[in-house]
Amino acid sequence: xxxxxxxxxxxxxxxxxxxxxxxxxxxxxxxxxxxxxxxxxxxxxxxxxxxxxxxxxxxxxxxxxxxxxxxxxxxxxxxxxxxxxxxxxxxxxxxxxxxxxxxxxxxxxxxxxxxxxxxxxxxxxxxxxxxxxxxxxxxxxxxxxxxxxxxxxxxxxxxxxxxxxxxxxxxxxxxxxxxxxxxxxxxxxxxxxxxxxxxxxxxxxxxxxxxxxxxxxxxxxxxxxxxxxxxxxxxxxxxxxxxxxxxxxxxxxxxxxxxxxxxxxxxxxxxxxxxxxxxxxxxxxxxxxxxxxxxxxxxxxxxxxxxxxxxxxxxxxxxxxxxxxxxxxxxxxxxxxxxxxxxxxxxxxxxxxxxxxxxxxxxxxxxxxxxxxxxxxxxxxxxxxxxxxxxxxxxxxxx
Length: 399
What we know:
The strands form 4 sheets. Strands 5-4-13-14-15-12-16 form a 7-stranded mixed beta sheet, with helices on both faces. Strands 7-2-1-11-17 form a 5-stranded parallel beta sheet. Strand 4 (96-99) and strand 5 (105-109) form a beta hairpin. The chain is built from 13 helices and 17 strands. It has helices at residues 31-42, 72-78, 82-88, 123-131, 204-207, 209-215, 251-255, 262-272, 278-286, 317-320, 328-345, 350-379, 384-398, and strands spanning 24-27, 48-50, 64-66, 96-99, 105-109, 120-122, 139-140, 145-150, 156-160, 165-168, 170-173, 191-201, 219-224, 227-233, 239-245, 293-299, 312-314. Helix 1 packs parallel to helix 11. It has 399 residues and is α/β, with parallel strands linked by helices.
């Protein structure tokens, strides 16, 4: 992309004769946007990623992800990252226990010596792998999008908080649940599902050995009474503890956790799980003071679609935000490589590339989204542990 200088990414007038390929702008430097940019560059097609974070380490990237063979791992295979992924993955992280509020283990899945089909990887490590496929100059850090203008000749002009701008022929919104690009294509908005709290136990093996042994190398979920209490180990020795509540959109804010003393926070959380097994609620007591972060869980309506437009599209959560039950990251990775494939297959026709990508993505996301929505409903049901135990038993029988 031509720029006024090497820093801002702002474009100048027309393109030169050698700039035959479309100027592609990817808004969002998460795993979906990086997969797209990496796959495009792998096929000799330039793309620029605009990310609001000042640098790659500006904020934590979350916990671990299990990558599925038909989606996330397929994407890494196509990006040539299979061996690098194996070196960073944690097969032991697939271990999973599902417990009921009384502390009884209803499901205990342990991967074999060679691991299962869905090994875990820390999100930060996965992002590093994907960044290795994108040239340094193609990621513009510190570019906070503030506006988008449609150009009379087609394409868009992006305006950034630092006063710079960039023109593109194809704009891809890879900017997550609160996408700034989505309103260009549809007025559909995410709907509220539940409230979510995350806490952490750093250096768990040394500081909380009993809890670390209880959680094990993977994750556990205690479910029931329209609540979920979970724990998941990360590769850096942190255990992430989560609380999910079937509550209205304003519930997290009303709790005022940020203004309360830590002892009061812990007491309130214990109040949510009154009557639950003490071994489970000990997870709350073990969390680091001040580690609680709350947010709402949302999803786009299943089957969300929009009329295809030639100069803009979406991928990942921007396109099909789903409940966090294991599919979002996998589908974002697959979106990225399949959109890149479509662009490579229609190098002279951006509109055809977008239409081909969206036709497949809409159908795939509708199926996966419906399954995810059903699993989310089971997750926060009054007898969720028993329901999920039956679900996993039926899935194992089908395999």
